[in-house]
Amino acid sequence: MLKKPTTYISEYLKELLQILKSTSFSRAVLVGIAVSLPIILGIRFDQYEIGLALCFGAFWSSPSDISGSFRHKKIGILTSAALAMVVGFIGGYLHYETWLALSVIGFLGFGIAYLSIYGFRASLVSFSGLLALVLSFAHDAEEIAIYQFALFIGLGGVWYLLLAKIWYHIHPTEETEELFSETYVLTAEFLETRRKLVDPYNDREDLMSKNMKLQSEPTTKHESLRRILISKRSTRGHSDYQDRRLLVFVQLVEMMETAIANPVNYDRMDVLFSANLRYLQLIQDLIYEMARQLRRISEAGNDTRKLPASDALEKCFEATRIELSSRYRTLRSEEYLMLENLLGYQEKQFKKLKRIKQLLDEKGTIDINIIDRKAAKRFVVSQELDPDLVLRNFSFKSTIFRHSLRLAVTIMIGYTLGSLFPFQNPYWILLTIIVIMRPSYGLTKSRAKDRMVGTLIGGLVAIGMVFFIQNPYAYGVLAIVFLVFAIALAQRNARSAAIFITLNVVFIFALLSPDIMTVIKFRIVDTLVGAGLSYAAMRWLWPTWESTEIKASIEKSLRANKEFLHEIGEYYQKKGDLPIGYRLARREAFLQTSDLNSAFQRMAQEPKSKQYAMERNYELVVLNHTFLASLASLSTFIQSHETTEASEQFEHAIGKIRQNLDMTLQCTKDASCEVAKTYTDNAAFFEDQLPDFSATGSEHFTAKSERMIRILQEAHLVWEQLQWLYSISARMLKVTVS
């Protein structure tokens, strides 16, 4: 169905408003001020080169200004400034001998790109260094010495840090609130997908695939929030805020775990409720309302008056309870217990949702638990800065090593082409290469496509604008505005960012050269050459194919799930408070499963000819995801219910599942998989432990038999999940061996 023009306009305006309110736009404005003010003052006081050096330093340092504690930002910005200063100094002497310049570019390109072995923030420092290396060709210092120009580049980084510090003191919670807002929406989307899974008429296989994609983004946001909330030192003015937000974060993580949990066998549910779909609709209504409230919380922001009331949800639960209690005699006991489990999970979600709203309502009085920050810091993984990493990754087995070598060779080829042929600005080719090239094929391909299309569109728009606008002051203002939007959209929409960066470049050169059409023509040609080189290099120069890398991701996910299973078994036996080891194992299991999902998505973007064992890998990814969902169900149940003593049969069952996982792990390493020959099927053991409901009707579930209901509910869910876990682990072993 086609949308009305008014709908398109409304959606566009809504998206534009979101961009203008985002932290990425705030940062882009900061960069705009940081790069334009030195240039304006430099021209005003006849010190253009000093202004340009400060502009370069600020611009090259800005990529490290990303989500995280301000301490990490400061280190990243200063490191970027220092690297840019050194590279700018070396680059200043690369204009004399082509053969020497080519060698130095290759060596420096590899070394700077190789810094990415130290994690994501290091990769941004690396990007700053590569920008400095390439853009050092854009200007020859004439009025001041090269070493002075390099020093002012370093000062430009300090200038940007000063602006970032001022902005942080004005808006200390802006970044945190945006991350929370995004996490509320992503959690709501995940809940909505889970709601659809309850409906027997929906395509569950497609929904499960969508679920795996949706799971990765909230997990990434959780990691960012962990770093900010746990790593940030409490100040007297913000300790209450920090504690409240940390507790909100805990509720969101637990909501996600419960949402991933799969408390019922859907196929069995379809059979049991084929004639009573009304009950399933009630459950769907509950999930829908909770998702809607999460979106309302996201929209409310810091305005507590806009927080949604719990009345609608309470009415939904009341209606469901009344419906269930009025007709429970018509249900078989297994149907009744399944509904109890489904409803119980939604009630847990409701409690977490109410807790979030209570914590956000700062006017309300609420008992905030004391947070053990030393224990909490164990959940934040610090980046290893061991110098030995350099040697450990210095081989073709390392993805970063291959990427660094590939990038170095490609920029050398780009530089050679730019020197041999009459390109107007050869460094544009190199700039395109470093912006597009990434370690993975899929991302490089999509960025190359977006860059080319965006540049073509930007060029066409620029032609029209230059035709109507002849004022040089307007060119300057538009260049700054387009730069701000290009930076703001860089992470949101690469194609739109390419359009704005093209417009920015065109209007900058419009100030310097009257021949705008030539500038646009060469801008397009340089981009096409750079994009073509990037794609060709990714395709044929030491390519990294996910089909060979995904085995390691599967192994990590299996190990994490195995450890989580072990911690669940330990907790079920010992009871009491949740130990730190349990929480760490849960976090690792969710994180590794999310990474595995992302790895498979990258594999799906690769050429068909390189997608080795695609069906087998897909099945293993789905099985890992399903295994974690079942673990989450078991985990959620035993945390929120008083359970009976763990029996020998329970320990035996856990042992059998772990044995299957151990054999699967061994088979991922050993192709012959001799250990699989010792496998014996224990499915009958699990069947025997399931409670028999054939002769039991729901009329036995009276108020007097509440204890019996809980015992049967425990037996039903725990043993059904154990049986399911065993079945999945056996299937994973079979698929791995095949």
Mean pLDDT: 82
> Into which percentage range does the β-strand content fall?
under 5%
Q: Under CATH, the topology of the largest domain is which?
A: Methane Monooxygenase Hydroxylase, Chain G, domain 1
Percent of residues in helical segments?
Answer: over 70%
Summarize the structure.
The chain has 738 residues and is mostly helical. Helix content is 75%, strand content 0%. It is built from 28 helices and no strands.
Describe this structure in words.
With 738 residues, the protein is mainly alpha-helical. The chain folds into four domains: 17-171, no CATH class; 174-375, Methane Monooxygenase Hydroxylase, Chain G, domain 1 (Up-down Bundle), CATH 1.20.58; 441-541, no CATH class; 546-737, Methane Monooxygenase Hydroxylase, Chain G, domain 1, CATH 1.20.58. Helix content is 75%, strand content 0%. It has 28 helices and no strands. It has helices at residues 5-21, 23-44, 48-61, 70-91, 98-114, 120-135, 146-170, 174-198, 204-231, 239-260, 266-272, 277-300, 311-327, 333-360, 373-376, 388-392, 399-420, 427-436, 441-468, 472-489, 494-512, 516-540, 546-574, 580-604, 614-640, 648-669, 683-689, 706-737. Helix 3 packs across helix 4. The longest helix is centred in the C-terminal third of the chain and has 32 residues, at 706-737. The chain is globular and about 90 Å long. The chain starts with a helix and ends with a helix. The model is unreliable at 234-238 (pLDDT under 50).
